[in-house]
Each structure stands twice: as structure tokens, then as C-alpha cells.
Specification:
Strand order of the largest sheet: 11-10-9-12-8-13-14-15-16-17-18
CATH class of the largest domain: Alpha Beta
CATH superfamily of the largest domain: Mur-like, catalytic domain
CATH architecture of the largest domain: 3-Layer(aba) Sandwich
Number of domains: 3
Distance between the termini: 63 Å
CATH topology of the largest domain: UDP-N-acetylmuramoyl-L-alanine:D-glutamate ligase
Shape: globular
Length: about 475
């Protein structure tokens, strides 16, 4: 049990009805989880207004209500606290409730459109190999040192974040690497956290269904760097035109990485193969098992972060050569007949272009590239025709299929994709609604030496249709298809 007045520190309170000298058990923003002596925080969400559930929360046992507007009926023996912003209040309250765990370890946030999962996950690997106790908050999974939990969001809610960080403190974790999404920043889920540093990867077309404009999307990302303290570092990709924008108002120490422009961590790709990359970083050669130019950028961010954090340079380069690729990120298998199947999370136009250009770079001859790709439902519709155009231009054959249609009609999504296909490429595109059948068709169309790319879902082991999740694993399906072809 905590005393309410002790966890209200730094919250901007406008008005209080009742006493703050009251014991509370836990804090909740979901009224369905309320139990006796809980705090209920009413948030005005993207689709639902939590203020509508204040009465229900009280019936279930909430004794404290934090809200932006007092309800019309005030209940006796209930403490009501009016705040300007419930999202910010929740984030600060959660930090206070768990004794501000982010101040007691080194928390490093990774933000950008593409590369967040790879960079955060590989930093976890590298620092673990270097002998540290490490935490990871990512799209793929959550790791509290060696304890693994399933991830539900790229950036979890504030209570979940601080709960995991508190677990990390109890496990003696030194560093935590965290993916920071634009949704998470905008909804103040990271508000009140103390970051040791922030990494910016790149910015391209994504989430415009939520942010409505690219400028708004960019500015949300920028606000993360604006909020970094003077004691932190900001490491940004200077080959992305938005890199310098991220640094404009930050108080943090500024550091940069790039392949094309002058930077603190300057790289040059020497060799690109299916087995990995050879590159120089500030003139020193390093070999990595990772594949493609986009991973060269990820490696620069990883090496830069490790150096800033004080790891020895030669030790960093040795550890980088041992790093393994992340689940669902350019993950590949080769059949007995010599067909290469690649599974990648590429679900934005820029990410798909990067993967297909990487495949083009490492091809050795006249191999065909057959791409299976879809677009998610209830998400940014404007990227659908762009994804289809890129797939049709950079593949010998493109097959459009279902991704996670969610509540949308899967065929309608494919129809919207097809609009982006140039007329001269239409003959080399197919549309197959069933994703498993689309992958099977791609495998059947391929011959020895060809490359099948299955893009969009990567590490995911489900397909979401009409609000229900069914087991579906791209790597599992494509591997099975290739085995069947070998028989």
C-alpha cells in the first residue's frame, strides 16, 4: 500500500475534492481491472473516453479518481483530483508509484520509423556479451535480464513500463534499451522517465492515419529529443534529412552517425553478401553477420551508443562481429533446391524498398525476386499504393495478399494497393487473398537460385482477422512450402 500524497509529486493538480492522505493499493486506467482501494485515472483516449467509466470504477472499489473533468455526481468518501492532462498524470504517478526506477538504471530510447527493434535488440545482445545485466522493451519481446515476457505494444503503457523497469532494478539491471514509438511519445507513455540517451534512426511514411501529417509525425519524434536532459546524449542519423531537426532544441550532448555525410561515427560499406557485411567505421574494419546497407546504419548506431556509454572500442568491434540477426528482420532460410526465402517485418514503403534494394545488391546473377506483401487494416491507408508500386518495380513477381486486415475487408485493402501499380508492371503482379496460398504460390513460381521475400509481418506469429487472432508464422509457412517442393 502507498500513501496517495506521496505519489502525487510533480503532477500538475488543478483541484482536489476530498483528502490526499489515503492509502491506495494500485493505479489503473482500465476500469475493468479496478479492485478495492485502487486509483482510477480517466484518460481521453483515441477511441474511448475513460471519464465515462468513473462510476463503474467506484462501484468496483476505486477510492481515488484522477480526471480532467469532475463527474456531475460526486460520491462521498471518494477523493477526486482534477488535472490538466490525464496521460501526463498517469505517467508521473506510475513512475512515483514504482519509486522512479528509470533514475536508477541507464535507460536508452530508440525512435524512428525503421530500425528501432533491431538496434534495441542488438544493443541488448552486445551489452549482455560485455558482461552487463540488461533489459529490453521492444516490439518483439520484453527481457528483464534473462527473464522473457511477450510484448503487446512497441511502447507499453506507463504503468507497464515502470513495472518492468522496477523488476529490472530488483534484478540489478545496469542498462535498459527501449523502443520509443510515436504513439508512445504522443500519448505521454514515456513522460516522466529519465533517459540516459536517445537514438534517432530515420523518418519515412508511417502512422499518418494517427498523426494526419508527416510534419506532425516528425514533430512528435522531435519532442522526445527536446525533452532529453542535459546529462543525456542524442545520437542521430545525419544521412536522414530529419536528423539535424531532432537535434535543434535538445539539451543533450549531440552525436551523429552516417554513411554519406560527415559524422562522429562515419561508416563505409566495403562488401555486401548474403553471409554479412564488411564495413569500416571511422577507418577501422568490422565484419557483421547482418545483411544490407540499412543494417550498416543500425550497426553505426549500435557502435556509437556503446562508445558513448564507455565500452572499449576494440571490444565493441569484437562483440559486433558476434551479433545475431533479430527475429523477423531479414531472417532467411535456403531450401535443398537452392531457393532462398527471406522473412522481413518491412511494413512501410521505405522499409520494403530497403529490403528489396538489399536483395538486389547481394544477388549474384539472374535470380528472380518474388515478393509476397500485404498491408494492415485499420492503419494508414495512404501507404498501400506506395507499397504495391515499390514491390512491383523492384521484384520480378509481386503477389499482393492479406496481412492483418483487422476489422477491414482484406480484399478492399488489396484493391487499394493495386491502384499504385504502374501499368507497365501490372503483368508481373498477382493478388491472392489467402496469405498461406500466396506464399505457396510464390514458392511454386520459384526455381533454384531464386529469392522469395515474404514482407510485412516478420516476427509476428498471428494473423488478426475481424478482431480475432489466428496462429500464422511467415517463416514457418514458407519453410513448410519449401520442404513440400523438395519432396
Amino acid at each position: 500500500m502507498k500513501n496517495l500524497k506521496d505519489i502525487l509529486y510533480k503532477i500538475s493538480i488543478e483541484e482536489v475534492l476530498g483528502t490526499t492522505n489515503v492509502k491506495i493499493k494500485s493505479i489503473q486506467f482500465d476500469s475493468r481491472k479496478i479492485e478495492s482501494n485502487d486509483v482510477f485515472i480517466a484518460q481521453k483516449g483515441f477511441t474511448v473516453d475513460g471519464h465515462l467509466f468513473i462510476e463503474k470504477a467506484i462501484l468496483l472499489g476505486a477510492t481515488v479518481i484522477i480526471c480532467e473533468e469532475f463527474p456531475k455526481e460526486i460520491s462521498k468518501n471518494i477523493t477526486y483530483i482534477k488535472v490538466k492532462d490525464s496521460n501526463s498524470a498517469l505517467a508521473i504517478l506510475a513512475s512515483n508509484y514504482y519509486n522512479n526506477p528509470s533514475s536508477n538504471l541507464k535507460l536508452i530510447g530508440v525512435t524512428g520509423t525503421n530500425g528501432k527493434t533491431t538496434i534495441a535488440s542488438l544493443l541488448y545482445q552486445l551489452f549482455k556479451k560485455a558482461g552487463f545485466k540488461v533489459g529490453l522493451l521492444s516490439t518483439v519481446k520484453v527481457l528483464v535480464d534473462e527473464k522473457e515476457y511477450n510484448a503487446t505494444h512497441t511502447t507499453p503503457d506507463s504503468i507497464t513500463i515502470n513495472s518492468y523497469l522496477n523488476d529490472m532494478i530488483n534484478e540489478g539491471v545496469d542498462y535498459c534499451f527501449m523502443e520509443v514509438s510515436s504513439h508512445g511519445i504522443h500519448q505521454k507513455r514515456t513522460h516522466g522517465l529519465h533517459f540516459e540517451g536517445g537514438i534517432f534512426t530515420n523518418l519515412s511514411h508511417d502512422h499518418l492515419d494517427y498523426h494526419h501529417s508527416f510534419a506532425a509525425y516528425r514533430d512528435v519524434k522531435k519532442s522526445f529529443f527536446d525533452a532529453l536532459p542535459k546529462s543525456a546524449f542524442a545520437l542521430v542519423n545525419m544521412d536522414d534529412k530529419n536528423g539535424s531537426i531532432m537535434l535543434q532544441n535538445t539539451k543533450a550532448t549531440k552525436r551523429t552517425y552516417a554513411l554519406k555525410t560527415i559524422a562522429d561515427y562515419k561508416g563505409k560499406v566495403l562488401e555486401k553478401r548474403m553471409s554479412g557485411l564488411l564495413l569500416t567505421i571511422n577507418g577501422t574494419e568490422v565484419w557483421s553477420k547482418l545483411i544490407g546497407t540499412f543494417n550498416a546504419y543500425n550497426l553505426l548506431a549500435i557502435i556509437g551508443t556503446a562508445e558513448i556509454c564507455g565500452l572499449e572500442k576494440l571490444e565493441i568491434l569484437r562483440l559486433v562481429s558476434e551479433l545475431e540477426s533479430v527475429s523477423g528482420r531479414f531472417q532467411y532460410t535456403i531450401s535443398k533446391t537452392g531457393i532462398t526465402a527471406i522473412v522481413d517485418y518491412a511494413h512501410t514503403p521505405d522499409a520494403l524498398k530497403n529490403v528489396l534494394e538489399t536483395i538486389a545488391d547481394i544477388k549474384t546473377g539472374k535470380e528472380k525476386v518474388i515478393t509476397v506483401v500485404g498491408c494492415g487494416g485499420d492503419r494508414d491507408k495512404t501507404k498501400r499504393p506506395k507499397m504495391a508500386r515499390i514491390a512491383s518495380q523492384l521484384s520480378n513477381q509481386a503477389i499482393f495478399t492479406s496481412d492483418n486486415p483487422r476489422t477491414e475487408n482484406a480484399q478492399s485493402i488489396i484493391d487499394e494497393m493495386e491502384v499504385g501499380v504502374p501499368e507497365e508492371n501490372s503483368a508481373k503482379t498477382l493478388s491472392i487473398l489467402d496469405r498461406k496460398q500466396a506464399i505457396k504460390t510464390a514458392c511454386k513460381l520459384s526455381e533454384s537460385g531464386d529469392i522469395v521475400l515474404v514482407a510485412g509481418k516478420g516476427h509476428e506469429t498471428y494473423q488478426e482477422i475481424n478482431g480475432e487472432r489466428f496462429h500464422f508464422d511467415d517463416l514457418e509457412v514458407v519453410s513448410e512450402c519449401l520442404i513440400q517442393l523438395n519432396k
